[in-house]
Automatic annotation (TrEMBL):
The gene is glpQ1. This is Putative glycerophosphoryl diester phosphodiesterase 1. InterPro entries: GP_PDE_dom, PLC-like_Pdiesterase_TIM-brl. GO terms for biological process: lipid metabolic process. GO terms for molecular function: glycerophosphodiester phosphodiesterase activity. Keywords: Hydrolase. Residues 13-271 form the GP-PDE domain. The keyword Oxidoreductase does not apply. It is an enzyme of class 3 (hydrolase). It comes from Streptomyces davaonensis (strain DSM 101723 / JCM 4913 / KCC S-0913 / 768). Its EC number is 3.1.4.46. Signal peptide: none annotated.
């Protein structure tokens, strides 16, 4: 029986909560990540950006306009200014939200620092992995990576014994950003995100030193043979953002290693977990 369970595990993709349980709760908030952990997600995905005063915060867009009641670029605002904003009220309130919104818990929907997210994970009471995506405005030239390593170090996560054991991985559309991370910490796993397949990499190779490919679900749908090539080249494949049941089936069929989704509970259910 034990072997059967292990076997099933090996062939069931990891379920990664994209921006937290972001279908139910406002993306990149403590509320969304708490919900993802409750839902049983294996890992959490977050985007990180630097504030004007050098803090890493979890925000997807360059500006805060879409996901808060404020305006302006994250990089032009200080953490204290961001902390005065509400990152929850933009989310559709017409429907009954699937998370408990307690207005008295301001922290649940205020700006989330990566530090606070790492604390949440440390307190989860079970293994919860983290896939951090560096958003990388060129003006910061390496500072995002430097701050990220510094913060990971404080949590003892910056230099795992082996990549396989690492609970943290760094993802980016920028090969240069990943290169910087690997140069500083060779055992920290890196994921090369792809929105399209560049002709240079069509044969299934990845930028030097990268072991994990992060194609969009659109690439996977349109070019399943490319996924086979990546796997044959010995790479893991992590796919984003997989919200449709047919796409979950396709990922299982193709032996995808991680499914990044806004709906971790629904995907886990579909996988029989
Ligand atoms: O997980 C990768 C995916 O999040 C990349 O796209 O725009 O959602 O950050 P985006
Ligand atoms: Ca992302």
């Amino acid at each position: 029986h034990h072997d059967a369970v292990t076997h099933a595990r090996q062939h069931s993709p990891q379920v990664v909560a994209h921006r937290g349980a972001s279908e139910d709760a406002p993306e990149h908030t403590l509320a969304a990540y708490r919900k993802a952990i409750e839902d049983g997600a294996d890992a959490l995905e977050c985007d990180v950006r630097l504030t004007a005063d050098g803090h890493l915060v979890c925000v997807h867009d360059r500006r805060v306009n879409r996901t808060s009641n404020g305006r302006g670029a994250v990089s032009a605002l200080e953490l204290a200014e961001l902390a005065a904003l509400d990152f929850g009220s933009w989310k559709n309130r017409d429907e009954e939200p699937d998370w408990e919104h307690r207005p008295e818990d301001r922290e649940a929907t205020s700006v989330l620092t990566l530090e606070r997210l790492l604390e949440l994970i440390a307190d989860a009471g079970r293994r919860v992995e983290l896939a951090v995506e560096t958003k990388h405005p060129t003006r910061w030239a390496g500072q995002v990576e430097e701050r990220l390593l510094h913060l990971l170090k404080r949590f003892g996560l910056d230099s795992p014994a082996t990549a396989q054991e690492s609970p943290v991985r760094v993802m980016s559309f920028s090969a240069r950003s990943l290169h910087r991370m690997r140069a500083a910490s060779p055992t920290l796993p890196t994921v090369y995100l792809m929105q399209f397949v560049s002709p240079r990499l069509r044969d299934g190779r990845l930028p030097a030193g990268v072991r994990i490919a992060g194609p969009s679900i659109r690439i996977v749908r349109n070019h399943p043979a490319y996924v086979e090539r990546l796997k044959r080249a010995g790479h893991q494949v992590h796919v984003w953002t997989v919200n449709e049941p047919e796409d979950v089936d396709l990922c299982v069929e193709l032996g995808i290693d991680a499914i990044i989704t806004n709906r971790p509970r629904a995907v886990l259910h579909q996988l029989g977990r």
